[in-house]
């Protein structure tokens, strides 16, 4: 098979991606001839309210304080593009991704709409439309890479022979350069396994098995060294080139990645202070009298420029006024007006394709229960003990949010798994006491 090597910045190793695998998605030329998918977020705002005092203090609980986490955020991105969302800690990056994917808790108040191909998504459609890769990799440490992906494929796709699932898994592993670690354990901090970068690629591969068209990544470079983080970002950019919409939040990207993103958005205190192409970013801030110094990382410079310094009150007021000035300039720019126009335009077009849902032909409840039982039994084979409940709960929380199964199915599989251990242990204890 022919392989394509990424063009990575100097100093980083090359990451190979197999483009001719039989189960990989459309090539760029094929995708270009099809109508482009679009994702729009229109005037998204999110706030949460909390009681001021402890639950036993009735008087103080009557008073509530409200925190505005997102304020009037509007974005637009099309398939084949990758958008990078920048912002300091607490700026609302993860909350924005949660709002876009429908994973926000119902304790807060969410306003605004999310449009896919010009159609506003209903609450029950978010799960079937978005693939969401979280910061932390929730994987069973005692399974191999191949076993992890095989179980995911069995939970996501109905029917098919064993050869079909094996072919699909092998194609995805080849796509993400995981074939050389296919039979190695995932591992954890207690015992060895694959590296953090490889573990992150396994999480991405698990999402690709559901054939998503919209992918969200929440700080995928967290905890990785510079070279591995660069490889992951280049890999994600390549996924976007294959007719996908990709949105990624990154805390501190390298300067070499500046031209890799099609669009860059900057959040500060929950407000969108900029969204546009890298060239537009340089021109916009230069027009605001903040040109990027030569030999400086544009990401670092503009992140510092749009962050609020809370070290002291005077500095906080000064930096907040600067952020408000930049945000006002952006709201009056042609880039912001074009974003709103693009969202409105797609709402009235009739030539766009339907909403690109993930693979919806999933197995029945009984089939999923059997797969989960097999997964749990295999997962405890390394230690010969039942799988720890916290680990299974974290895995079931993530995979149930992905729509692979419901939480009660994992709970029932675990009960069926530990039941023989409980019965045998009780019989041995009772027999000793009896005799």
Automatic annotation (TrEMBL):
The chain crosses the membrane at residues 411-434. It is a multi-pass membrane protein. It comes from Balaenoptera physalus (Fin whale). The lineage of its organism: Eukaryota, Metazoa, Chordata, Craniata, Vertebrata. One of its GO terms (biological process) is cholesterol homeostasis. InterPro entries: AAA+_ATPase, ABC_transporter-like_ATP-bd, ABC_transporter-like_CS, ABCG_dom, ABCG_transporters, P-loop_NTPase. It is found in: Membrane. This is ABC transporter domain-containing protein. CDD domains: ABCG_White. Residues 53-294 form the ABC transporter domain. Gene3D superfamilies: P-loop containing nucleotide triphosphate hydrolases (3.40.50.300). SMART domains: AAA. Keywords: ATP-binding, Membrane, Nucleotide-binding, Transmembrane, Transmembrane helix, Transport. One of its GO terms (molecular function) is ATP hydrolysis activity. GO terms for cellular component: apical plasma membrane; ATP-binding cassette (ABC) transporter complex. Belongs to the ABC transporter superfamily. ABCG family. Eye pigment precursor importer (TC 3.A.1.204) subfamily. Signal peptide: none annotated. PANTHER family: ABC TRANSPORTER G FAMILY MEMBER 28, ATP-BINDING CASSETTE SUB-FAMILY G MEMBER 5.
């Amino acid at each position: 098979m022919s392989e394509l090597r990424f063009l990575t910045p100097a100093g980083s190793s090359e990451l190979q991606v197999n483009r001719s695998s039989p189960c990989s998605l459309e090539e760029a030329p094929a995708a270009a001839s099809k109508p482009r998918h679009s994702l729009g977020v229109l005037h998204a705002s999110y706030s949460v309210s909390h009681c001021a005092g402890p639950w036993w203090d009735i008087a103080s609980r009557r008073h509530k304080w409200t925190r505005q986490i997102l304020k009037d955020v509007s974005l637009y991105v099309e398939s084949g593009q990758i958008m990078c969302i920048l912002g300091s800690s607490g700026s609302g990056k993860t909350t924005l991704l949660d709002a876009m994917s429908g994973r926000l808790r119902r304790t807060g108040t969410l306003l605004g709409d999310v449009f896919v191909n010009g159609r506003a998504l209903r609450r029950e459609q978010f799960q079937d439309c978005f693939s969401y890769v979280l910061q932390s990799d929730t994987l069973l440490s005692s399974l191999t890479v191949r076993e992890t992906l095989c179980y995911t494929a069995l939970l996501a796709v109905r029917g098919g022979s064993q050869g079909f699932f094996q072919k699909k898994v092998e194609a995805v592993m080849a796509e993400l350069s995981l074939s050389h670690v296919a039979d190695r354990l995932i591992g954890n901090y207690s015992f060895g396994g694959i590296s953090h970068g490889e573990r992150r690629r396994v999480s991405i591969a698990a999402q690709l098995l559901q054939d998503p068209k919209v992918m969200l990544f929440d700080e995928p470079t967290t905890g990785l060294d510079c070279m591995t983080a660069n490889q992951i970002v280049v890999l994600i950019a390549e996924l976007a080139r294959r007719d996908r919409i990709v949105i990624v939040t990154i805390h501190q990207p390298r300067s070499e990645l500046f031209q890799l993103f099609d669009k860059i958005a900057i959040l500060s205190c929950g407000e969108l202070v900029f969204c546009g192409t890298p060239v537009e970013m340089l021109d916009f801030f230069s027009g605001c009298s903040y040109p990027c110094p030569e030999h400086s990382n544009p990401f670092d410079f503009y992140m510092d420029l749009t962050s609020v310094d809370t070290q002291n009150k005077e500095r906080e007021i000064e930096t907040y006024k600067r952020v408000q000035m930049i945000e006002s300039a952006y709201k009056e720019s042609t880039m912001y007006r074009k974003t709103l126009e693009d969202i409105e335009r797609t709402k009235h077009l009739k030539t766009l394709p339907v909403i690109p849902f993930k693979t919806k032909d999933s197995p029945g409840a009984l089939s999923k229960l059997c797969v989960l039982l097999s997964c749990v039994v295999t997962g405890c084979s390394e230690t010969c003990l039942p799988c720890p409940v916290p680990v299974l709960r974290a895995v079931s929380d993530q995979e149930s949010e992905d729509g692979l199964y419901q939480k009660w199915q994992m709970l029932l599989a675990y009960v069926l798994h530990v039941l023989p251990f409980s019965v045998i242990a009780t019989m041995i204890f009772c027999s000793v006491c009896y005799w």
